Amino acid sequence: MNSREPSDDLEAELLALGDLLDVPSGPPPSDVAAAVRARLEDAHGEAPDPVRSHPPARRRRRARWKVVTAVVLVVIAITAATPQGRAAVVRILRFAGIELRVGDTRPMPVISVTPLPYEHTVDQDGLKAEVKFPVRTPKALGEPGRTTVSDRGRVVSMFWPGGVRLDQFDGGLDPVLFKKLGPPWPDYAKVGPYQAWWIPGAHPLGYLSRQDGTEIPLRQAGPTLIWQQDALNYRLEGVKTKEEAVRVAASLG
């Protein structure tokens, strides 16, 4: 009976990612190609440890993980190094009810502040009456200071001191929000078993009308973690580091 090693599932995901990724047809810049070759050679040619010895199965797992990691870095390097690659990233990051639009340069900031359509403050009774999906509160933050419902029950937003907010909305709907991004690029993360993306810098945030697709600039958003969990979309803004944002998101349960 064959047993699955921990890297099998990740390798399967990488193969699936390859079907979605539009790798640029032209060769990558010479410096990127050199870095890629060095990374792959390092992954395959790890020197034996003269002090610590590991069982063969463990050594094989470590070697396979190094190769898988190298493949991920190759994809990131080629993608980030060319305009065609950055265009592919836009398609890959359109998820969790948010459309990420990645450009070569930082976009102009939004200097005004516009609320989401029909946004209003609610109490617990109002929340239950207006929202069709289950609303969660991260245990790491405690009860929010204020909660709003907007877009006729489509979006729930919770607010805490220091500019921290959590937006949550039904994952079965078309994209609700859009973000315009430039360097620094979004960083991959995981919230438990769920894929996530960390956006480290300030960036313009906007709303997409479900009636006619009208784009409404909302404001300049802070660092944000976005992920999808149990068919719901989440957007955690205002937590300063990726590690802390992942910790808070994981406390959602």
Labels describing this entry:
eight-stranded antiparallel β-sheet; four-stranded mixed β-sheet; globular; 253 residues; 12 strands; alpha+beta
Written account of the structure:
The chain is built from six helices and twelve strands. It has 253 residues and is α+β, with helices and mostly antiparallel strands. Strands 2-3-4-5-12-11-8-7 form an eight-stranded antiparallel sheet, covered by helices on one side. A hairpin with a 6-residue loop joins strand 9 and strand 10 (215-221). Helix 2 (30-44) runs antiparallel to helix 3 and helix 3 (56-81) packs across helix 4. It is globular and about 45 Å long.
Task: Sum this structure up briefly.
The chain has 253 residues and is α+β, with helices and mostly antiparallel strands. Helices cover 32% and strands 26% of the residues. The two termini are 35 Å apart.
Based on Cα principal axes, name the global outline.
Answer: globular
DSSP helix fraction: 25-40%
What is the tally of helical segments? 6
- How confident is the prediction overall: mean pLDDT? 75
Largest sheet: 8 strands, antiparallel
Strand content: 25-35%
If you compute it from the alpha carbons, what radius of gyration comes out, rounded to the nearest whole angstrom?
A: 21 Å
End-to-end gap:
35 Å
Total strands:
12
Q: Main sheet: which strands, in order across?
A: 2-3-4-5-12-11-8-7
Order of H and E elements = HHHHEEHEEEEEEEEEEH
The parts where pLDDT drops under 50 for at least 5 residues are 19-28, 46-53, 88-92
- Which structural class should the secondary elements be placed in? alpha+beta
